[in-house]
Design a protein that fits this description.
Helices cover 31% and strands 26% of the residues. The protein is of the alpha/beta class. The protein has two domains: 168 residues, Peroxisomal Thiolase, Chain A, domain 1, CATH 3.40.47.10; 143 residues, Thiolase/Chalcone synthase (Peroxisomal Thiolase, Chain A, domain 1). β4, α4 and β5 form a beta-alpha-beta unit. The two termini are 21 Å apart. The structure holds oxa(dethia)-CoA. The site of oxa(dethia)-CoA has 19 residues, from α2, α6, α7 and β12.
């Protein structure tokens, strides 16, 4: 029997407060032009003082459930991709479960930084294919503002807060071809030898503090361009398809130049690429589900469209997922 994990609904949530590039000029020695030219970012959302990652995740999950008219008690698994949990434990996932009154189910967080949502989708897909779960809430939620060094202009201008969610549902009535709706494959990678290119300088077992983001931007940029191109090629080859069969590229939103480079290598026009980095900045694990929901609610991505999701981040980690929406 062929079983597929179908993306039935999407949702998102962005904190109300917006910091524009002009606002950043009063925080660090930077300029609107530098930020926009080097990254494509124009503004980012920043969570309120008392807002937590779980608050964002819960709001995005509610939006996804409402959008798909899906009952919370049908959910049998919750996976939250985050690198900024409210507490070391319990997971953000169990907080979502409690807030939405979801009965006993599987619930856990995945930590793969900016690739977190791609990893979470891969894990959720495996759970559905193996029959371990049927209705999975997959969420990417981050409060990057809480782990930024607001005196480091090389990082603090790049990140933002937000959350996105999808509901994946098992479908057994499929043909086992590329005409099916649902996920066809996931491709997940990591190279721990590159862990020092992008990290947080704190943690429970080392400093007993949360720490702040440290990044060798130029190096990360170089590998991002290479890994995105590699994993996209790998995904196309694994499914024996060509770039013209992809309706939408939904990339991690870190830098417009990385996104443009991947699209160019695929021979895809930017009119086929979902771009939200200008409005959201880099929201780490939240960026892909935020972009996806933005494109779905904005009428760009429609039922039946072939979408290629790809991302990379600290670790270094990277990956891609091919699905028919
Ligand atoms: O999501 C996880 C993955 N992360 C990424 O994909 C991020 C990858 N990296 C990048 O997106 C880019 O490398 C950045 C946007 C972070 C930086 O762009 P860049 O073109 O690589 O700039 P750079 O780091 O080479 O810096 C160029 C200059 C430097 O000055 P000098 O040494 O040339 O005099 C920096 O000190 O720009 C300076 N600079 C700034 N100037 C104004 C660095 N940050 C700023 C700033 N405002 N905020």
């Amino acid at each position: 029997m062929t079983r597929r994990a179908v993306i039935q609904a999407t949702g998102s949530y962005l904190p109300k407060k917006i910091l524009t590039n002009a606002d950043m000029e009063s925080i660090v020695d930077t300029s609107s032009e530098w930020i926009e030219q080097r990254s494509g970012i124009k503004q980012r959302h920043i969570g309120a003082e008392n807002e937590t990652t779980a608050d964002l995740a819960i709001a995005a999950a509610r939006d996804a459930l409402d959008s798909g008219n899906i009952a919370p008690d049908s959910i049998d698994c919750i996976i939250v991709a985050t690198t900024t949990p409210d507490q070391t434990f319990p997971s953000v996932a169990v907080k979502v479960q409690a807030a939405l009154n979801i009965p006993q189910c599987i619930a856990f967080d995945v930590q793969a930084v900016c690739t977190g949502f791609v990893y979470a989708l891969g894990v959720a897909n495996s759970f559905i294919i193996s029959g371990q779960a049927r209705n999975i809430l997959v969420i990417g939620a981050e409060m990057m503002s809480k782990i930024l060094n607001w005196e480091d202009r090389t990082t603090c201008v790049l990140f933002g807060d937000g959350a996105g969610a999808v509901v994946l549902q098992a479908d057994e009535n499929v043909q086992g071809t590329l005409d099916d709706r649902g996920i066809f494959s996931s491709h997940l990678h990591a190279n721990g030898a590159q862990k020092d290119l992008l990290y947080v300088d704190g943690g429970p077992s080392s400093t007993q503090t949360t720490g702040h983001i440290v990044m060798q931007g130029k190096e990360v940029f170089k590998y991002a361009v290479q890994y995105m191109s590699d994993v996209v090629k790998e995904t196309l080859a694994a499914n024996d398809i060509t770039p013209d069969q992809i309706d939408w590229l939904v990339p991690h939103q870190a830098n417009i130049r990385i996104i443009e480079s991947t699209a160019k290598k695929l021979g895809m026009g930017m009119d086929k690429v979902v771009v939200t980095v200008d409005q959201h900045g880099n929201t780490s694990a939240a960026s892909i589900p935020l972009a996806l929901d933005n494109a779905v609610k904005g009428g760009k991505i429609k039922r039946g469209d072939m979408i290629l999701i790809e991302g990379m981040g600290g670790g270094l980690t990277w990956g891609a997922v091919l699905a028919r929406f």
